[in-house]
Amino acid sequence: MTRLLSKINSPADLAALDLSGLQQLAREIRQELVETVAVTGGHLAPNLGVVELTLALHKVFQTPRDKIIWDVGHQCYVHKLLTGRRTVFHTLRQYGGISGFPCPRESEHDAFGTGHSSTSISAALGMALARDLKGENYGVVAVIGDGAMTGGMAFEALNHAGHKRTNLIVVLNDNEMSIAPNVGGLSRYLTRLRTDPMYSRGKEELEHLLKRIPAIGPRVARAVERLKDSLKYLVVPGMFFEELGFIYLGPIDGHNIQAMINVFQQARSTQGPVLVHVLTRKGRGYPPAEENPDQFHGVGPFDIQTGRVIKKEGEPPSYTEVFGRTLVELGRQDERIVAITAAMPAGTGLSHFARAFPERFFDVGIAEQHAVTLAAGLAAGGLKPVVAIYSTFLQRAYDQVLHDVCLQNLPVTFALDRGGLVGEDGATHHGVFDLTYLRSIPGMVVMAPADENELRHMLKTALEHPGPVALRYPRSAGTGCPVDGEPVSLPVGRAQVLREGNDITLLALGSMVSPALEAAGVLARQGISAAVINARFVKPLDEEIITRYALRTRRIITIEEHNLEGGFGSAVLELLADRGLRNIQITRLGIPGQFILHGRRSLLLARCGLTVDGLVDTVLNNLKGRRTSVRVNLGAGTGGK
Ligand SMILES: Cc1ncc(C[n+]2csc(CCOP(=O)(O)OP(=O)(O)O)c2C)c(N)n1
Ligand SMILES: CC(=O)[C@@H](O)[C@H](O)COP(=O)(O)O
Ligand SMILES: [Mg+2]
After folding, report:
1. Which ligand is closest to the CA of 429, given by its number?
2. Closest ligand 1 atom to Cα of 297
3. Which residues pair with 273 in a beta bridge?
4. Torsion of CA 117, 594, 573, 406, to 10 degrees
5. Judging by DSSP bridges, how do beta strands 445-447 and 537-539 pair with one another?
6. Cα 407 to chain centroid, rounded
7. Where does thiamine diphosphate bind (predicted)?
8. Which residues have a beta carbon within 5 Å of ligand 3, which is an ion?
9. Domain 4-199+238-291 carries which CATH code?
């Protein structure tokens, strides 16, 4: 039998399908999702949960005329399959292939680029207001999960949208999960809407009840009004959203296509902002993902039969894992250590700490700004907070780092995971700006370990330091180096000379130390004597060692897994310029000032010249007096073309 999916080249092709056709298509889409993501890796469970929701949206709204904005965007695979990217779906998240997130450069059906959470309602409201001001007429829909709804921006936007009263639809996709189980009062409220029969009895019934209460005399009338209000709070589902100015529709079974088509048609013809509360199951239709939705939230290649993730044999533990276990060790020695995550206990390695010290662990939801200021408060209260956070997500809490932590010199440790290129998630998630935005803050200490052993020492160093510290490490396995017994504190601002040399100095940071050492070995066999320095600190820099080697070799190559503008190499340039050192040839190797797309991390690093071969080439060119070009073709791709 010809698969229906093979005939879907654009959402217009859905018009030919009746309900049973759509249900058949939903089954085929699930199979396609599982078979593709088992090879490419990706966000499987969120997409399995929104198959019917996406079909219903595309049945009612006509993209690209109507705009659908996917919050976070990790659940956009079904949308991509329906909007002309079916034949390139196998290239998902691969270098040169289609992105795992909505990407307007990739398709006119992707109305807005996302990747970071809780932006959809703001963007949708902006588009709706632009439409109104230009006198245009189209639908705008934001699809946001219950996890993303815990982010402050979502509330800021709801507040504003309720005030503006323009036509806008917010679809709340409630599966009771963030990556981990969702947390907080909002989550409890949504659970009540889901489960309490009082809440789901329906507005008509309540209105009928209220109309039957007679209002006699002004005082009695006022009392009756108050009673009506309190009854409304008790009984009307979605009262919270209604109070903000939204019409609340729901809760709706998010796996019932017809019910959703009906409710979206109703929402579409309603004046003003509407919130449609849709209930879905994360991982729906693939038992291993239904049973472990957090593991299948974002998953690597896996075996379809067993659901087991395909692991590389003998790979050393990741930096994340070493961080998580070391924090537990240190937490046992010092009760003042507390840990904070913004909805990523497993991804940051904090699950270990959460299990060991549940009362000293805080999952704040997708609320990075709150996480940082909460840490400031905990530090002001005499504790030693560790905020474990992906480099890319700390970007949104910059003012909290500066104003709430650093300005008061509070001892908060920022454990910046995914510092560097993350690989398949691509441009939205690469953590390549943290050195720039952190090293400019007075009082901040910024460091990067060369290996997992040094990570342990740096964590200890950070926790003993009396002010704010950030340590960044990559999304990668460790180097497999031997690990010392007890973590010890390192001298702040001191680099480590790993190899002596006279012809050139390789000044490497973090993940780049190991390839630099290897490159020096290759160069030695060609008669070139390269010194290798593990910088350890970006702030404060080891001015003494850097100056000494600059003067000795007169040639320096700085190497960092970070954007070149404002990064480690820039800090070294500033130092040498400030010291008035002239006639020193400095080459900065790092990530060129472009947004880097998705692909395997090792491949992206190679394209940036950040491998042993790349470093050797740069040194040889340098010695021949040639400059290395660091502009690479990584930012211009349109995906799949
Ligand atoms: C600012 C920010 N913080 C954290 C994340 C990591 N993250 C991606 S998806 C997700 C959970 C989203 O939950 P929800 O919105 O309910 O979507 P679901 O996966 O359940 O469909 C988190 C924490 C992110 N993308 N952006
Ligand atoms: C969509 C999102 O932001 C997360 O799911 C992210 O993709 C997780 O990345 P890791 O796989 O590096 O934990
Ligand atoms: Mg969710």
Report:
1. 2
2. 19
3. 168
4. -10
5. antiparallel
6. 27
7. 74, 115-117, 147-148, 175, 286, 368
8. 145-147, 175, 177
9. 3.40.50.970
Answer yes or no: is pLDDT of 632 > 60: no
Q: Are strands 413-417 and 384-390 parallel, antiparallel or unpaired?
A: parallel
pLDDT for 182: 86
Give, in order, the Cα–Cα distances in Å from 539 to each of 205, 392, 441.
64, 19, 10
Give the number of whichever ligand sits closest to the CA of residue 53: 1
Residue whose Cα lies nearest atom 4 of ligand 2: it is: 298
DSSP state of 299: B
Buried b (16+ CB within 10 A) or exposed e, 17-47: beeeebebbbebbbebbbebbbebbbbbbbb
Q: How far is the CA of 366 from the centre of ligand 1 (A)?
A: 7
**Fold for the domain defined by 319-472:** Rossmann fold (3.40.50)
Contact of 40 with 426, CB cutoff 8 Å: no
Residue 480's identity, in one-letter code, is G
pLDDT at 477: 96
DSSP 396-418: GGHHIIIIIIITTT---EEEEES
CATH entry 3.40.50.300 includes domain 496-623: no
- 72, 124 contact by CB (below 8 A): no
- Ligand 3 midpoint to CA 3 (Å): 30
636 pLDDT above the threshold of 50: no
- Catalytic positions: 282, 368, 396
Torsion angle in degrees (nearest 10) through CA of 568, 574, 579, 581: 80
Best of 52, 71, 117 for a ligand 1 pocket test (most atoms within 8 Å of beta carbon): 117
For the chain, the structural domain boundaries read 4-199+238-291, 203-236, 319-472, 496-623
pLDDT tens column, 219-275: 655 665 665 555 555 556 788 899 999 999 999 999 999 999 999 999 999 999 999
Check pLDDT > 70 for residue 218.
Answer: no
Give yes or no on whether 4-199+238-291 and 319-472 have one common fold.
Answer: yes
pLDDT for position 582: 85
Provide residues with CB under 6 Å of ligand 2.
72, 74, 179, 297-298, 347, 418, 422, 425, 475
- Distance (Å, whole) CA 371 – CA 241: 25
